[in-house]
Structure formats: C-alpha cells, structure tokens
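Q: How would the structure tokens look for this protein?
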Amino acid sequence: MVAILSWTINAHAQDVVFNVKDSGAKGDGLTPDTKTINETIDKAAHAGGGTVYFPAGNYLAGSIHLKSNVALYIGPGATIIAAPEENISEYDKPEDKIDNMYEDFGHRHWHNSLIWGENLHDISIIGPGTIWGKGLVRNNKGEDDIRPNKSISLYQCRNVILRDVTLYHAGWFAILATGVDNLTIDNLKIDTNRDGMDIDCCQNVRISNCSVNSPKDDGICLKSSFGLGFARSTENVTITNCQLSGYDEGSFLDGTYKRSGGAPIGRIKFGTESNGGFRNITISNCVFDYCRGLAMEAVDGAYLENVAINNITMRDVMNSPIYLCIGSRMRGPEGTPPGKVRRVIISNIIAYNVDSASSAIITGIEGSEIEDVTLKNIIIYYKGGGTREQAARAVPDLDKTYPEPDKYGVMPTYGFYVRNVKGIKFDNIDLHVLHKDARPAFYLDGVTDADFRFVTAPEVAGSRAIHLVNSRNINLFRSLNVEDKLIKEAENNDL
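A: Here is the predicted structure in token form.
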C-alpha cells in the first residue's frame, strides 16, 4: 500500500491525495490540528473522493469527521492523538439520537469520538501509523457527561475498510461499529484499556489478522443491541487468524507482555447486548493467551444460531474456556420472550492451564433450552484442585443477571457443566487436570439427548466421571471408562 500511495502522490497528487501538512496541519503534538484535518477531508470529498494523507508527525485532534469516498492514510511515523480534556472544545458533543435506555451511554452516542462517521459509504482508515486515544475516557457518568470516549465510531455506514493501523489506549471502544454493512477489519494491532472492537447490528463483516490486547474488557465483541432504535441481527461474520490477550496495557505493543495478575478479559464474545441476535458466524484459527475464553450469550430475547468455531488454541485461560448461555435479562422492549441458541459446532480446540473454578459452561433455561450443540476434537488441561465439598455445591440460577462465568462461583465440575440442553454431542474430547480434582468431569442437569463418543478424563479415587440430574437419553460409547450404555432416565445418578 505504501508503494501504491507513493506512486499516487507523485503521479496524481492534485487529483487523488490530500496531504494534511500541505493544508496547514502542524503535526507537532502540541497544536490542535482538528480544523485543518477536517478541512482537508472536506476538500477530498468535494473533489469526488480521494486519500487524506498523514505524513510522519503527531497530530493532536478532537473529532475528525469522515466523509464518503474518502480514505484516511496514516503513514509511517504518523500518530493521531486524541486531545486532552483541556481541549474538550475540539470534540463534538454526544448527540441525542437514541432515546431508549436499553443500552449504556457508550452504545447510545457516536459523535463524542476521535474519528466518527454517520450514514456514509466507501470509507477507509488505513496505513501503518497509530491512533492514540490519549484524551479519551473509558466510561461516562451520564447523559450530561460530554467527554469523548471512542477512537473510531461508525453509525449506519457501508463499504468500510479498517486496515494496518495500530490503536493504543483507545477509550471505551477502540472501534464501535453500529449498523455497518460490508465491513472489513484487517491487520490491526489494538492495545487498549477497555473494549477492542464492538461490532453491533452489523452484517457482512470480515475480521482477520488482528491482534487485540484488552486486559480490562472484551477484545473482539459481537453485539446486536437496540442502538439503532430497533432490533437488528449481526450476521454473516467471519473472524479468522486473530490473537487475543490480556497482558498489561501497553506491554503488548512494547513487547514486554507483562502480567500484573488479577482476572484479565481480552476474549472473543457474542453479547452481552443481544436484542437482534447472531446468525451465520464463523471463528477460525485464533489464539488466546492470558485472557478469558469464548463467550456466546443470548440474554435479551434473540436467536444465536448457525455458528461454527474451529482451530482455536488457548493458554492461561482465566475462567471458562467455553461459555454458551441463554438468559432472561431481557433488556429490551417489554414482552419479548427469551431467545434461542441452536446449531453450534465447536471443534479442534486446544487449551492449557485453564482455571477450573468456572469449568466450561453450557446452560439454557427451562422452556428455552439450548439445542443442537456439537463439541468435537477438544483437548483441555485444567488446573484442577477441586474438592468433594465443591462437587456437592448447588449452582445458582443467574438467568436474569449480567452473564459472566465467574458469577456462578466454583462449579461442581472441573470439566463441563451442562444445564437445560436438548441435543449435545461430545466427540473425541480429552480432559486433563494439572492437579488432582475430586469433582466429576461432567455435570449434566436437565439434559436430553446427550451423546458421548471417545471422551476421556483422568480417574480420581473417590470421584466419578459424570453426575446426572433430571436427564434422559444419555448415550455413552467408549467413553470415561464407563461401559457402553444408553441411560434413558437419570434423576440423580453418578457414573
């Protein structure tokens, strides 16, 4: 791209490329360049489109306004810096766009951002440079709080490319895309103090080759909120060749990869906002290191269906490696029924040194059970160390609360906790514990039609492989050192 841009500058500078320094931008990191940058973008738009070029320099700015048919190219050595609070007049105020209270402040406003676009088409932010959200806050105190909180914010746009840029300390959201269709996010490096990217009510999305370090919140998060004023699904999404982590902020970019302890997040998640649902999602060839695992949550009345997850490696996972749930939080219009989760395949997963307090959790609710789940070719090494007392612990009903695996407390299994599910297959699952664990490998509660094939787990004296509660049609074949059998009814059984 650099070579292409260089050729473009030399051959067609007046027609295609608009250099912000030629327009008067200082790039000294001290003088706000907001007005000059926006005037340069306007020039490109009035010319029918083009590339706004940021050569090496530090561009202090408030709200930058994207325009259709215009690309921002942040060149090598160039950094766009979010102006600090003393320059708050450089930013646009939060708009009064959405009047419902189904979302938090961050999901109801877009203009209070470093870079934003609304109702645009054919826009790009590209180049090897950096966006530093220095002056952005990581949350807001309420509707009267006008402080900026997002690095890149897009609302109802189409044909968007975000590529090659580095985002650091990027505010509440490094990227918030709401109602954006035909969105390509490729080769970004994000090292931030809250969410990496939130893809909300978007369709036809491709996320690839990205590294997201976000110790304090989610790395890549798909949502389907009421942020448009109506429910719209997030669908036709691919996430591939990405790396997620929860190292101390800044230590990913500087290569020190520091771990200060605690419970970093940094994962891939669907939800929590889930009014419109999720359909046709694939995740493949991703790496998780020192963060949480996969989370898929339908808690606001929508469907989560047709999901395929394949080729994932995890190391030092801080709570549940796989969390799949239906809840009835129902933050949305009154009278909406609970949602559905169905047709999910998770395969070829390797996870090592996984916190065993949470286990893997797959839980629906009575009357709205999870359906048709397949788990195949999975190897998990849990930390272990659970006790018989923990094995007897009752799991609380948290269907109406904010969904998070650690809210359940220590689970009565180290491996898989499965509740209110119809149709689940465990095929070639290999569980290990790094320290002996007295809890069962599997705990099934209210499960119908479970199939175990070639499932292994360590034998521990005085422990059992599976605990069954109110479950039926449980089929075991060459699994868990239990004779092949079909259990038609199990009220409270140990195997």
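Residues 325 and 430 are 23 Å apart (CA to CA).

The longest strand covers residues 416-435.

Upvote if useful.
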